[in-house]
Amino acid sequence: xxxxxxxxxxxAAPTATTSRHCTAEPATASHSTRTGAARxxxxxxxxxxxxxxxxxxxxxxxxxxxxxxxxxxxxxxDAAIGRAIQRLGAVGLVQGFYHGASPNxxxxxxxxxxxxxxxxxxxxxxxxxxxxxxxxxxFIIPGDTEWPSQLDDLGDGRPVGLWIRGRPGPxxxxxxxxxxxxxxxxxxxxxxxxxxxxxxxLGSELAERGWVVVSGAAxxxxxxxxxGALAVxxxxxxxxxxxxxxxxPRGNESLMARIGDAGLLVSELALGMNPTxxxxxxxxxxxxxxxxxxxxxxxxxxxxxxxxxxxxxxLHRHTMGVPGQVTSELSAGVHxxxxxxxxxxxxxxxxxxxxxxxxxxxxxPERAGPILPRDALAPPVARVLEAVPASxxxxxxxxxxxYAALSDQETVxxxxxxxxxxxxxxxxxxxxxxxxx
Length: 437
What we know:
The structure is a single chain. By secondary structure, the protein is an alpha/beta fold. The protein has helices at 31-35, 62-73, 79-99, 103-106, 110-120, 125-134, 175-179, 193-208, 221-231, 253-262, 277-290, 305-314, 329-339, 349-356, 379-387, 397-404, 408-420; strands at 138-140, 162-166, 182-187, 212-215, 236-239, 264-267, 293-297, 318-322, 344-345, 395-396, 424-427, 430-433. It has a 9-stranded mixed sheet with strand order 1-2-6-5-4-3-7-8-9, with helices on both faces. The chain has a 3-stranded antiparallel sheet with strand order 10-12-11. Helix 8 runs parallel beside helix 9 (221-231), helix 15 packs across helix 17 and helix 16 packs across helix 17. The chain is elongated.
């Protein structure tokens, strides 16, 4: 579309959204959580302050402005909106909302169109683009060189655009390039000490092997995975269920600041938008589509982390699970996933890398027990050694030859060989094992 996106003349800039759910995950989204609340509200989550202002960008093109508007108007993953964009383009769709086009033209219900029309007149999407630039971030859309094309596997439900925030500087790392070698680590928020340890170990081992660790910045497994990558100065990405200027959960504010310094914060939602329970589930599909594979560490049968694994499976991504205690409810969901054949069992970063990496380049080392001196013995010699009893009296050559199915002469020869190697010793006419001190 080449037509400019119409915007009202008297729009107010969007303000930081109020969070009424600072300690518990919200269940529903009210009008205030979708469109913003008064800045003076003492309950409002303050935007994080660790990013420096960027230079003023060039005026955004109409398609970018239209898609920015859609991220504030719609919920993520709306397939009906995706189909409308395919037919009309983002600019045409937003113009249709603004002018109240007919339901037949937009392919949407009249009530939805009316609601979008009313909400569209209350904000200016160009202001959101200016704000993200001042926060040192950007808004990328399909067609940009930085757009991860694997998100197109989501079909009509792919994101209309992604808000990105990261290290202050003239240029953010390319999300497309980072996603080419990325792996998701997800799991329970209320994880055990075992789950936290395993997630942190996987995060650090994968980061040391050059993988970008992707998770959701939630408590529990997500936090441990991010911290594991950061501990070895690795790259990590947090995909959020809120705007990239909102810290949720509040207890992870310092973690999100560290992720922003070392990696990227990514979201489908416009600035100031708060998380809801439904948005967490929708966020999981982006994690699954963005990465080469998903590892689940501790998940109960109804855990949201399993939805990420199921979406990864649907998208033909590698799905992996870490085994836990069979008596632990938090591992029951992972075990069921592995038992059904939907996930591959993995225990460390090397095994994950081998599964999702390049053939021949990311092989995990072979696991084997210690090599013992007796393992190098020839089969006849080993049979003679096995025939020697553990008793102090030992046994005569004839009995040993019988047990080893060899002649007396061969048995004597092998006994002297074993004696020179320190395995057996002669005790009169008998042979016995050398006692180890």
